[in-house]
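PROTEIN FOLDING TASK:
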Amino acid sequence: MTSRKPLQYYGLKEFADIAKEEGMHYSTRQLSVYKGRDKLPEPAVMIGDKAGWTKDQIDEWIKQIKENKSERKKQ
């Protein structure tokens, strides 16, 4: 029988920390506003009123933001 590693979910604080590691400085407050404006990925999980995202979702969002900034610089 193989044991699988449980999925890990990240809240807004961890989301901000991961973005910071990528050179993107967002506060949890900014990300909360973005979430309310549907500018963050749909949470993978909701526990009560707390949203949780997977690392893959966060990484993909960061990648898209960086690509959008890069595109705007070219214009």
Summary: Residues 12 and 46 are 12 Å apart (CA to CA). The chain has one domain: 12-73. The longest helix spans residues 55-74. The first strand starts at residue 45 and ends at 47.
